[in-house]
Structure formats: structure tokens, C-alpha cells
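Lab notebook, entry 268. We have the chain sequence and a SMILES string for adenosine-5'-diphosphate, and the next step in the workflow is to get a structural model of the bound complex before anyone spends time on docking refinements. Request logged below.

Task: model protein plus adenosine-5'-diphosphate, output C-alpha cells.
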Amino acid sequence: MNIVRVIAADFRGERLRSVRAFVGPRRDPTDRKRIKTYVRGFDDILASGIPEGYIVLVSGAPGTMKSSLAFSILYQNALQEGRKSAYFTLEQSKDITLEHMASLGMADPKAWEHLTLLDMGNIRKNLNYLQGRGTWLELFKMYCNNVMKASRISILVVDSLDVLETMAKMQDPRADLYFLFEWLRDLGPLTFLVSEKPVDLGPTSHAPAEAYLADGIVQLEMHPTSDLYVQRRLRVTKMRSTKHDPGAFALSFEDGGFEVTRAVTGPS
Ligand SMILES: Nc1ncnc2c1ncn2[C@@H]1O[C@H](COP(=O)(O)OP(=O)(O)O)[C@@H](O)[C@H]1O
Ligand SMILES: [Mg+2]
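Result returned:
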């Protein structure tokens, strides 16, 4: 009887092993390692960070600090972990971006060793390269590929997706965005796409295609708490494979770092 059991167990084990060999190792999305945001209080809300390789929209009106927040995630990861990142600024020049980040206290040269900053100027200088040989989007992809080849970057910021869509003259945004997202997923880094388009996912709203395609959505807003006061707020509307609090948090920036705390109504 014992021998039968041993043989049966062995057979099951062998079968399991051969099935595993066929389908490869178990790939559970929740097994992905997470990248910390280093925003005080935010990583706890996100079950210790954002999964590697995700595509996350950072959306909000102008002035809600989307660019500053995205940059601070790269900056802190570079400073604390030596993690390599690239920031593609399409809305403003590299110099203005650097100036703004320095004014926010993010100018430690130790972090800069790990950050690559690219701007429209880089692309414009190479527009001649296009001359019937490819599209603006292809050139953008070529830059991203080159950055990835030069150093294994694990975080990429595209600021903004709105300008990318305009410059790429997307004829069929739904299909074009789908392929762009597929391409970014193959490229590999955790990608933050900054956008000023409203991404309300309510039942009667018409959310843009990127809201459905993205793995996560972080919304920033200015919330009037009285006729005199406005509070900066952050909300995680979506984060796949993450049990997160979808409520609003107050977002503040002090001493070179962001912090989120539970939002309360009333003057702040
Ligand atoms: N030193 C500072 N401390 C806190 N907030 C600042 C500081 N400098 C600028 N800001 C705020 O940052 C905003 C711009 O941030 P930015 O990240 O460019 O916004 P967005 O990308 O959403 O348009 C400004 O409108 C201002 O309110
Ligand atoms: Mg911006």
C-alpha cells in the first residue's frame, strides 16, 4: 500500500514538474517587485509601492504638481537606491525643468548620476533624420530604446502624453495608443504618463482610451476647502493587483519631499 502511495505521489510530482516545464514558472502579477514612490505616507497606501513594469497615468489640471511628483519619484529612487531613470520632457525645455526641480530642492548631483533628461530639443535636432524615413513617434521610440540600451533604466516618465499624441499626429488614437502601450510594456520600465485630460471613470463618463489601457491612475487636483482655501489632493483611482484606498489624500510639498495625509474638509 505504501509503495503504491509513493509511486502515485512520485507520478503526480513528475506530472507537475513536466506541466511546469511546459508552461514555465508561475507568473502571478502580484509577484512583481514594487518600486517605492518615496512620497511620505503614499507607499503604505499602495501596498509598499507600484509594481515594476506598470504603466501609470498621472493626471490633473495644470499646476497640480504632476511633473514635480513624477520627477520626485525618479529623484528619490536615484538618491536612495541608485535606481536609473529617464525623464522625457516634451512640454518644456530640459533647462526649465531642471530649474523648477532645483527650486523644489531636488538638485543633489548624486541623484543626477542616475537620471537621464531628454527634451523636445533632442528630437527637433534630429528631425532631418526623419526626411521620409519614419514618423515622429518612431523617433521618440528610438530615443527611448537608446536610453534603455545605454543603462538599464527601471522608471520612465513621459511628460506629457497629450503632447506626444499631438506630435505623433495620431490618426486613430484608440488603436495608436493601444500599440504605444504594448510597445512600452515590451520596453519594460515602470512608466509614468503625465496627462491633463480628465480621466473620470464614472459609469456615465467618457474616459479616454489611456484610462482603460493604464495599469494605474493617480489623479491630482486642487480642491477648494472654503471660498479662501485650496488643498492639493491625490487620489489613486486605479492600481491593478493592489488593494488600495481609492479615497482622497491631501498632498503637500515640504523640505524637498512630498507627503500625503488623510484629506479632511475645512480650511487647511
Ligand atoms: N517651492 C515650491 N514649493 C511648493 N510648491 C511649488 C514650489 N514651486 C512651485 N510650486 C508649485 O508647483 C506648481 C507647478 O508644478 P508642476 O509640477 O509644474 O505642475 P503641473 O505639471 O501639474 O502643471 C506651481 O504652480 C506652484 O504652485
Ligand atoms: Mg507639468
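Notes for the group: The domain at 29-262 is CATH 3.40.50.300 (Rossmann fold). Worth checking against the assay data. The first helix runs from residue 2 to 23.
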